[in-house]
Amino acid sequence: MVKIALEWLASCAGCELSILDLHEELLDLLEHAEIVYAPILMDVKEIPDDIDIAIVSGSVRNEDNKERLQELREKSKTLIAYGTCACYGGITCMADLYSPEDLSARSFSDNKSTEPAEQPSEVVPELLPIVHPAGDLADIDYFLPGCPPKEGLIKDVLIPLIDGKVPEIPKKSVCADCHRQMDHVEFDKLKRRVVGDMDPEKCFLSQGYICLGSVTLGRCGAMCSAAGIPCHGCGGPSLDVLREPNHDVYNCLVNRIAHLSKMPHKDVEKQIYDKGHLVYGFVIGSTIMENKKVSLIPQLIKK
Amino acid sequence: MKQIEISPVTRIEGHAKITVQLDDSGNVSDAHFHVMEIRGFEKFLEGAAVEEAPRITPRICGVCQTAHHIASAKATDAVFGLKPPETAEKLRELMLLGQYVHSHSLHFYFLGAPDLVMGPDSDPAERNVLGIIKNNPDLAKMAIKTRAVGQHITSIIGGKPVHPVTAVPGGQSKGLDAEGRDKLLNDAKECVGLVEAGVEVAKPLFEEYADAIETLGPVETYFGGLTSGGKLGFYDGQMKVIDKEGSMVHEFESNDYLDYIEEKVQPWSYMKFPFLKQVGFPDGSYRVGPLARLNIVDEVPTEKAGALYGEYKDKFGMAQNPLLYHYARLIELMYSAERAVELLEDDAIVGEDIRQGVDSLMTRAEAKESNETLRGVGIIEAPRGSLIHDYETDGAGIIQRANLIVATGQNNLSMDIGVRETAKALIHGEEVSEGLKNRLEMIIRAYDPCLSCATHMINGESPLLVDIHDADGILVKRHVI
Fold first, then answer.
1. B160, B256, B362, B377: best to mutate for the A interface, most A CBs within 10 A
2. Residue A261: count of CB within 10 angstroms of its CB
3. Which of A184, B298, B336, B355 has its CA 20 to 30 A from that of B127?
4. Is B91 left (phi over 0), alpha (psi -120 to 50) or beta?
């Protein structure tokens, strides 16, 4: 029996839920593999030795997270960074837009409903200056981004791994799965997502709404755009962005909008009203993304 | 002084530890429930366009993501002064019921019930849902099927099973078509039957563990939650607070929560301690969630859940014992399935008018000049209790300040006191059995705490170790459990 462990670091538990969302297929999976450690589900409290496949979700927010990740790496043959937080930092890394002191102050000393107090410091661990994707601090065998990865994907990856094979998974961007029609439309104004009525058949970018589908890995099946919501980039950067040193989610997005609308690049850049939350929201903690020459992340993060 | 540490508490959402201090004669002098990390959502929402909040805040918690999504969307409605059309309100309520079916069945079957089905002293390697799958596959299949209905509802109404996206300022981005409605209606009807079967399994367990219900986690508090006209409901209503005897002490609208609720920081936990401002800390501690809701309402307005509620009230009256959270949760699970059927049978659910739009917005430059502040408070009943999102934006709708009061925080003091009182009653000396330590965890589990939410935090904690320290704090003995 292949031994599987699940560990969560700074995460929301959505990744673990996506595994439970295999529903009855989970029972089939359990005929081939044994879960030996998973704090959300079981009382085994120490990471066992000799794990075949470890699945880690979340990012690294403090020393404890870091130690835990290292221990998991040492004890497992194959380590999967599962979910966008583990791969690229995910939404937890939006914290890097502010200093840890400011984060703490908003919660404990400068908060509308709270009697002002010092940040808790007994028993609780200190925060690291910035948040790291698990994948930046450990050798990872497989990166499986998604927020969370779509439930079927875990099966597509785990079953081949259990059988000793290399999994084959899709590599296209979100746009490749989106049903919307992309047109060149001349416009000179980007629209906030809250304004106006969106055409349900037309590409969001063609309508002047910011959508990250073209720069995002598409294993989600473009579910948000099918539900009338532009892509927020939660699946992490597309392979094109990852591979090309001069491609970055921001500059590729600007290029795409300029190309579709015939607006000058500078005008597009002026109108992108929030780079931190809207464009880099899910990848701001990633060293891979930050180290790109064209990246704006170094200007945005506060240590 | 010696210390017993249980870390991490397992089968809960997020991470925490329990410490128990022993005096020189081996009796418990103090005990606490600690929550260990913070992610800082309240801060990093600042600067975001407020319409992004409903898709940022579900990531506070992947378990009660829909609850955050909807509370957040309600706050954005208020910021822009929008009133969603009837169909949108019903779709949101249905999505929230999907949240309840998934979350309550996840908690009961996957996280809480193993203590009761397998027994609190059973082998910890088997005392989990995987043990139930092995020993009682039919029960496990029923659990999986029930939860799947909740996730299907969220997926179809919310666009995704985890971190839904369709609630937007002024309504919903996507309606429900006739085909989707038929499918969900079948699912919801099947779910009522599945919950009935689950209740039959659970009821004898509450008889069997009557002693544990009486003794574990004793505490008496105020209770709070939303209700409309005394009825159980999750999406809307007024906040009602009752005292220990059941008399109403407050009733208020969401916008006024700051007049009634205050939070206290303790140095040993990142999770804050909300209390009733007009009573003070700690006497004003109150609880929320299923137990609280069944205490504050006069009626559970669906057939089968209403009948279960009647039996429960006759037996337990104003219930204070935390293990009864499990019982109350099952009654709410039944209500959720029945209410989903009601909503799906209502033709308004497939209406086409689903969103009131925003026509225009100020630019950032205009907003800076105008100095206008907009505020929106969204409040709903999340599975674990009342959830408040409060945003202040500039005139362009860019968040300047955000305040979140989540359900689990409101139960923090009760969990802490419950652990301490139980430890005092049960622990004498440093040799403590695994089953006894598990009973302390069972108190925490009863509340179904969502610690990811509670400090908008999570933690990668050390393995479950029981450390015995000597008077100088030097480690003398370490048990790995």
1. B160
2. 20
3. B336
4. alpha
Q: What is the DSSP letter of B10?
A: P
**Residue A45 contacts B, CB cutoff 8 Å:** yes
Give mean pLDDT, residues B384-407: 96
DSSP state of A98: S
Tokens of A74: 């040492």
Determine which helix (DSSP H) or strand (DSSP E) holds B286, and give its type and residue range. strand B286-287
The residue of chain A with its CA nearest to that of B16 is A124
As given in the structure block, the two tokens for residue A48 are 């066992």
Rounded-to-integer distance, Cα B45 and Cα A105, Å:
14
Between CA A114 and CA B445 the distance in angstroms is 26
pLDDT of residue B463: 30
Taken in order B82, B86, B88, B94, is the CA torsion positive or negative? positive
Minimum distance, in Å, between the CA of residue A166 and any CA atom of chain B? 27
Residue B1 has pLDDT above 80, yes or no: no
User: Could you read off the pLDDT of A223-245 as tens digits, one per residue?
Assistant: 999 999 999 999 999 999 999 98
Is the pTM higher than 0.90? The answer reads: yes
Mark which residues 295-324 of B lie under 8 Å from A by CB: none
Segment A38-63 mean pLDDT? 93
ipTM of the complex: 0.96
Q: Are B361 and B227 in contact (CB under 8 A)?
A: no
Measured distance CA(B344)–CA(B94) in Å, rounded: 8
| Helix runs in A89-232, H state only | 100-108, 134-137, 151-162, 174-177, 223-226
Instruction: Say how far apart CA B457 and CA B453 lie, in whole Å.
Output: 6
Please write the tens of the pLDDT for every residue from B448-466.
Answer: 998 877 655 433 333 333 4
Residue A277 pLDDT more than 70?
yes
Kindly write down the DSSP assignment for every residue of B431-450, as one continuous string: ---HHHHHHHHHHHHHT--B
d(Cα B222, Cα B41) in Å, to the nearest integer?
28
With a CB-CB cutoff of 8 Å, which residues 53-72 of chain A face chain B?
Answer: 58, 60-62, 64-65, 67-69
pLDDT in tens, B138-156: 999 999 999 999 999 999 9
Q: Which of A104, A93, A119 is nearest to A9 (CA)?
A: A93
Q: Report the distance separating Cα B461 and Cα B447, nearest Å.
A: 21
The closest alpha carbon to B407, from B425, B392, B387, B390, belongs to B387
Output the six-digit token pair for B388. Answer: 């408040």
Report pLDDT for A13. 93
pLDDT tens profile B179-198: 999 999 999 999 999 999 99
Task: Please give the Cα distance from B265 to B275 (Å, whole number).
Answer: 11
